[in-house]
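subagent[fold] <- orchestrator: predict structure for attached chain, return tokens only, no commentary.
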Amino acid sequence: MPDLVITPPAPVLAPITGSTARFPVRRVYCIGRNYAAHAIEMGHDPDREPPFFFQKNPDNLDFSGEFPYPPMTSDVHHEIEMVVALGRGGKNIPVEAALDHVWGYAVGLDMTRRDLQGQAKKMGRPWEIGKAFEHSAPMGSICPASEIGHPSKGRVSLLVNGVLRQEGNLDQLIWKVPEMISYLSDYFTLSAGDLIMTGTPSGVGPVERGDVMEAAVEGVGELRVTVS
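subagent[fold] -> orchestrator:
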């Protein structure tokens, strides 16, 4: 191995439910507007148009249970999502074989600097400034699919300070998990360690310092995050 001129970054390791083992993260893919009601509230047609994806960085993940309010914004929104963790990769994966590539599932939050995202949209620019900032992806532990199966329905909810903000069901996903995996694999070489955030139901809204977010995906788990 060659000498390194700087210290390499530490790998991002996600916790696993009921285990001391960890899941090494490679990439984080996020699908946009994958619930019809959320597409409508964001001003878009809910018809089944081709899916689109953006990425967060692995080191945007945060497992601490705290979300530090980010700089350069005054409008940070919560978006609860089920997260898919891949245990195998590949290219051109058929839909009917896609679930064989899934290692497990988790609850995550796609925190968004909505004001900065809105500015980027108006100017036709990428969204990363609103999506891929530090601590922007709070996430719970990964539940192995070998234990919980592959959830295709179940309540998705988020409370802020005990008040229900978001509610939906996994069976309302416009693009289902196998379709997302297959579609992504046509454009990227997927790999073990990749995560896919599967979209958020309607009800997204702002958080303030001191707020407590309680996210849950039925059959997968719960996540409690304090805005610090």
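orchestrator: received. Logging for downstream: The CA atoms of residues 6 and 55 lie 26 Å apart. Residues 13-227 form a domain with the Fumarylacetoacetate hydrolase; domain 2 fold (CATH 3.90.850.10).
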